[in-house]
Amino acid sequence: MSQQLARTRLAYARTWHHLSFATDPRPLGRIASSIALHLMGKHKPIYDPSTDCGDYVIATSCADINTTGKKRYQKLYYTHSTRPGSLKSMSMDNMFKKWGGGEVLKKAVRGMLPKNRLRDKRLARLKVFEGEDHPYRKNVVKIDGKTVNNDKIGHSGETLDAVLQMKNELPPEKVGVAQAST
Amino acid sequence: MTRIRRGYIARRRRTKIRLFASSFRGARSRLTRTIIQQKIRSLVSSHRDRDRKKIDFRRLWITRINAVIRGNRVSYSYSRLIHNLYKRQLLLNRKILAQIAILNRNCLYMISNEIRS
Of A38, A154, A162, B55, which has the maximum CB count within 10 A? Predict the structure, then answer.
């Protein structure tokens, strides 16, 4: 019976999340992990591994991706063309220069998605941009000027509950409102 | 000895098996020898998967509860919720918690806030 609950188009509709590296100080891997969860749909109570219930994620300002330590200059990305002797490596800094921060983010997220037939489809829902401009402004839903993100993909994301509470749809208790501490 | 044909004995046995596999795809519902093998395989699958079903659904419920619980607060998780549930001796099982998570998310938040001591 739990498979038939909430089988509505609204529940399975894909939402668009926006994330800007200019305002988010978290390092590359931590953000990539959160992005991968959203691409899989694991932030939803109707999650099912057989259906692709993931969402879209727009990542802007990828040129400002933050990494700790000396990873930027020491982390190597390897490619091999299956021809003997064709192992090539490129440091993360050179990746940024040649392909941009978007590719670095995509490589990170790709490794965090489950390796199955849905991996490429889910990765295609990650839209990366080097600057702040992106053509999907109309897809990101806003209520009263605040982006409706029901989860924490943004750094200090306003939760859906906080937005609904502003509109007096929730009782004014501590129920469900994100606590900044703890 | 006079010659004795087997008659319809084997055919009756095989028809029963053929009825079982009547909805299978391709040769699996048409060819007798294949039908016998596929019936055995399908019964084995259903026997094994009756136990897998219980395991699989519990895993799915846990994933769903985790999804909703983590959306609420920064450092809360399914494991902490279950720990608090057992500490307060609340008898809600994962199936019910998962249904509450789908249908009435605020109710689940209320429960988790109450038992969070």
Answer: A38
